Amino acid sequence: MTLVPTPDRAKPGSANRLRQEMDDHIRMVADNHSKNDVIRVGFVPDMDAVALYNCTDCFVYPSLYEGFGVPPLEAMACGAPVLASNVSAIPEIVGEAAEMFDPTDSASFDLSFIAFLSTLQNVEYRQALIAQGYEHAKGYSWRRTAEKTLRVFHEVLGTSRN
């Protein structure tokens, strides 16, 4: 099963046309696979997301813009290989632990998606990408984020951390 979040139509901006095109394209790709192969999901509550990440064979993230890129990191932390868009903060967040594609180009998505599914058939590659994802996701935690934020506050205010 491949898990693909549907683009968020509620967000305003000039990317609405591209978002609709990507959503239509993902629907077409999903329709060309058996119903069990590609699962398109909308909003998923946090308590259900981990179960989905743990059940999926791979996670495809066709975001056009991101504030940070938490879903691909969550998927990596759960052992799901990730194919993500190469825009906004996503390349910086996923690093070398995910494959990427251009979400504004449906041909890029097609080629990347097919190649990704094909290469995941190679057990060694799949296991290496999963291990890389686990290791990469370890670098992110709420505790570490809070510590870094606190350090910046102290630097800006010129106070010590005692």
Entry summary:
By secondary structure, the protein is of the alpha/beta class. The chain has helices at 16-31, 46-55, 70-77, 90-94, 106-119, 123-137, 142-157, and strands spanning 2-5, 38-41, 58-61, 82-85, 99-101.
Domain count: 1
Poorly predicted segments: 9-14
**What is the rounded distance between the termini?**
50 Å
Assembly annotation:
single chain
CATH superfamily: Glycogen Phosphorylase B
Briefly note the structural class of the backbone: alpha/beta
Strand order of the largest sheet: 2-1-3-4-5
Count of runs of 4 or more consecutive helical residues? 7
Order of helices and strands: EHEHEHEHEHHH
Strand content: 5-15%
**The CATH topology, please?**
Rossmann fold
Mean pLDDT: 82
Helical fraction: 40-55%
The tally of beta strands, per DSSP, is: 5
The CATH first-level class comes to Alpha Beta
User: Rg, please?
Assistant: 17 Å
User: Which shape, going by the Cα principal axes?
Assistant: globular
Which CATH-level-2 architecture? 3-Layer(aba) Sandwich
Structural write-up:
- The chain has helices at residues 16-31, 46-55, 70-77, 90-94, 106-119, 123-137, 142-157, and strands at residues 2-5, 38-41, 58-61, 82-85, 99-101.
- The chain is of the alpha/beta class and 162 residues long.
- The chain has a single domain, classed as Rossmann fold, CATH 3.40.50.2000.
- It has a 5-stranded parallel beta sheet with strand order 2-1-3-4-5, sandwiched between helices.
Q: Would you spell out the secondary-structure blueprint of this structure?
A:
Blueprint: E1 2-5, H1 16-31, E2 38-41, H2 46-55, E3 58-61, H3 70-77, E4 82-85, H4 90-94, E5 99-101, H5 106-119, H6 123-137, H7 142-157
